[in-house]
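Annotated sample (chain length 191).
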Amino acid sequence: MLNVVIFGPPGSGKGTQSEQIIDYFGLGHISTGDILRAEIKEGTELGKIAASFIDRGELVPDATIIGMLENKLNALKSSKGVIFDGFPRTVAQAEALKEMLAKRGESIDVMLNLEVERQELIARLLKRGETSGRSDDNLETIEKRIGVYEAQTAPVIDFYKSEGSYHGIRGVGSVSEIFERIKEAISACAA
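Output written by the structure step:
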């Protein structure tokens, strides 16, 4: 099974590139936000636990998220692999994911980090805000989101570098140019 983690700051093109990776490599998509919403909607035990934290305005504990991920992986066991989108966000989550996959005899094959300069990210997000009407695509919020991303994810990037699965991907150019770089990185790891 091919396990891919995709990283990148807001505006780096993660969503666009995730779709390309899923289509080209035939991977299942694991988005923690989607999983949380589905578990809560279905009223599962884990969904009820998560809802209780969300209702109090608290973060859902890593153990609960990992349990949901495990359920999703079991549901996707017939796929060629999965792409983790939006997870892990902390070193503790990366370690928990590593442990959970190890129990399955699996690991993260490649961690892709879409690298885009701050000014380019801001320009992209402001442009998206003009066309999408997203209220969080304004300069103040964009700067804050990028800052939070940089502060929280730098340690996770270091974790995957130490694991030997990190691949920085230049996230500038056309969608197809960026995807070619991603294909090369994944193919090199999957070989």
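Annotation: Residues 111 and 156 are 10 Å apart (CA to CA).
Annotation: The first strand starts at residue 2 and ends at 7.
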